[in-house]
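Next comes one such specimen:
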Amino acid sequence: MEEQKFHYATVTEAITKLKEQGYTHEFSLEGDHFKDGEEIFPAAKFEITDLYRYEGPSDPADEAIVYALASTDGIKGTLVTGYGVSTDEATIETLKNLHYKYQQEQQG
């Protein structure tokens, strides 16, 4: 797997830098779609363009992942997930599909 181009010290720094690169939407994932306020976007149109994984200094359960996401029609945003967050099956499946597409891109 390729090395990430950047690694930011904190989740906040990663989000700030990604916003500077045009990732302006702050997504939450609900089932098979992303939400930003009242706007809803189908997750199937998005790909992970980068991701950053963070672990808490003393507890791996404090892990968080920052996703940089871009859609086929140019919408860009971030999604932050925490380790072990209780999510429904559709949400878990959506994240798995996004990860699969990302891994295929990295290998290609």
Summary: The radius of gyration is 13 Å. The chain has one domain: 11-107.
